[in-house]
Write a structure and sequence with these properties.
26% strand, binds flavin mononucleotide
Amino acid sequence: MASIVTIYGTGEGQTAKVADRIDDELGTRGHETTTVNVSEAGSVELADFDAVLIGASIHMGRHQKAVRKFVTANRDVLVTKPTGFFQVSGASGDTSEVGEAEAFGYLDEFIDATNWRPDRIGLFGGHFAFRSMAFWCER
Ligand SMILES: Cc1cc2nc3c(=O)[nH]c(=O)nc-3n(C[C@H](O)[C@H](O)[C@H](O)COP(=O)(O)O)c2cc1C
């Protein structure tokens, strides 16, 4: 059994759902899990865990700034542990080569910007919440 912490950023809650699902799955496999929104992760000591997962979604071509900052600030610990990164985006909802290239483009940019290369990567198609966009349509 390993202790695994998941830190995620989310705009409309989809990445939170993915993080919770991963947490549940790891729990059923007997691991001790902790899942925290990056906005509340200031007091999390990554060194206390056996493995770390980081999640983020894409808005306007970028991951949450708070996730980038968290990864950059904790890079020295991250490189000493087994790690994974999952990304939720509209691009991964498009299974064509174009969608795939776009999703990998976001990922490459994140790896370059943070100088952190996770051991495992998951790319998930997001859910576009039209209702949350209603303000664009209001007069
Ligand atoms: C305002 C807005 C901008 C978005 N921009 C992008 C984008 O540039 N590229 C992309 O692939 N997906 C984009 N998406 C889709 C999101 O990545 C997708 O809805 C995802 O599920 C959001 O996850 P979250 O609720 O955890 O933030 C955008 C969604 C919204 C609402």
